[in-house]
Amino acid sequence: METLIPTDQELVQEFVNGSRTAIETLIKRHKKRVYGYILLLVKNQHLAEDIFQDTFVKVIKSLQEGRYNDNGRFVSWVVRIAHNLIIDHFRRERQNNVISNDALEYDLFNTPKFSPKNIEDDIVHEQIIDSVRELVQQLPPEQREVILLRHYADLSFKEIAEQTNVSINTALGRMRYALMNIRKQMEKNNITLTTM
Length: 196
Description:
Elements (H helix, E strand, L loop, with lengths): L7 H9 L3 H23 L2 H20 L9 H22 L23 H19 L3 H12 L4 H8 L3 H21 L8
């Protein structure tokens, strides 16, 4: 007998009807995608964990208050909430004149948990991750956003267009220009993103 995996919408409805396990399933299902997106933007594991938790607190409250429209885009909605919380965090940080010490922050990828068996591969992998992160951070905000939403939040171009309030063609165009700019920067700085 084959067990059917419930859709996000079915789980949302189950939660609204009182099922606590439904929301736990949704959180587990989308944790990697949502947390990865947050971590990439804030670059701090503890802050990312806090924002991830705040995101799902807000998701739960919104669902309980009936402020979610069943439109088949649950994860896009969750990423949008996370994105807004990240923006709020940086606004507060700027208003409070808090200085971020990125130079002293520990590197998430430099932990035993992520170390492969071959240390040389690990070093090369870290250098590639750092290079890609730097290249993405140098992009104009609109291009950086489409890269993050597409490759780190795993949204479709349709979802990106909806989330950023632009047409699909504009989202595609931003991606195209982002990739062109990354290639130009790689050539200019003689960066190679391969292990060989």
